[in-house]
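Shipment paperwork, digital attachment
Item: protein structure file
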Amino acid sequence: MENVIELKNVTKKFKGFSIENIDLQVKQGFITGFIGANGAGKSTMIKMMMNLLKPETGEVKIFGLDYKTHEKAIKERIGFVYDGNVFFEGMNLKDIKRIVGPAYKHWDDDLFYQYVEQFELPLNKAMKTFSKGMQMKASLAIALSHHAELIIMDEPTAGLDPIFRRELLDILQELMIDGSRTIFFSTHVTTDLDRIADYIALIQSGELVFNQSIHDIAENYALVKGGTELLDRDTEKDFVHVRRGPTGFEALTDNVKEVKETFGDTVFIERASLEDIMYYLKGGLQYV
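Attachment content:
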């Protein structure tokens, strides 16, 4: 099985917003970063993957199975880590284990205590006393303790201090070593994904812009800078978006090879970060 998540021609409409004809595949054994501005549709997509929302058209399959006939089997194999405390605030981790554990056929007490120790989590303190970073670790420990094959994370690093963020990213990289897990990581903190992602899917205003390997993105996308005298109707076709200023232009391209053939050494080309790509694809800002 190559794809753990498959969305085919998925549409979901709300008042004033819609997800339109999304086709998305998430490959097994890799970390896929899911990026987009707030309100772009990331949480809606995740809710459909979790069967918390149903698409109006199209098909959602997880592990090659559909929710209509295999919901319990699918959810046995998924771990969900959410931006926020999803547990009762007065409960401690021992209480949560006692409630959550029996819900999963493959719950592993030994593994749970192993992660609690590794993540340095207190067993007997109420969840309301946990920092946001500790809550993330608690959610991850529970997800891993039933041997989840797919970890879906919705903005897990939002609001974390830089040290906790770095620690969480290191943990995720360690989890991927044996190749048995797949992580789908939704975030607007794109610098996290520069460090750990294998693939990036970008959603904008309810439409999937691309789903590419981090290598292909680095190869194809770049920022191009040069004098405005180089721009005309033909040369601007090489760019996704151009921003003009008093001293020249800066533009995003998704075809570095074409830019080099068109402009040669007359422009300066530099790597585009994921943040740059998001910014320019949304239209950027013009100098005034």
